[in-house]
Amino acid sequence: MRDWLTALGIAVACLLASWALLVLLARRLPPGILRDLAAFIPDCLTTVRRLRKDPRVPRRAKVAIVIAGLWLASPIDLIPEFLPVIGPLDDIVVVALALRYAGRQVPRQVLLDAWPGEPRLLLRLLGPASDDSAPTDAEPVDR
Length: 143
Fold this sequence. Notes:
Largest sheet: none
Number of strands: 0
Mean pLDDT: 76
């Protein structure tokens, strides 16, 4: 039993160390793609926390967001975290899918207000806005 507790303690310590490393890299790296990637998971956790408390977010979107947050915080993954580069890939995919789902349920500005990172990352993740004011084929566009 003692061996199991030791292994569990080591696993939790490694998980916390990897999260701390991500936060440190997100703050210390110069602006660019590496910093954006390092900051993605901490930004997602902050967004999940903020959207969970926002009354403008429908219940279905909150459930999807909370499940994504639990998946992100869980030490159990499809791809182990200690594998370089691909380790956090399953976390990123699950959070991206949950945010895209929430993006269809929640006004885009609510998501942007909850996102602590670079807005262009979230906008790229969400895809093009379905805007009713966009010109249709019948309406000419001024150029």
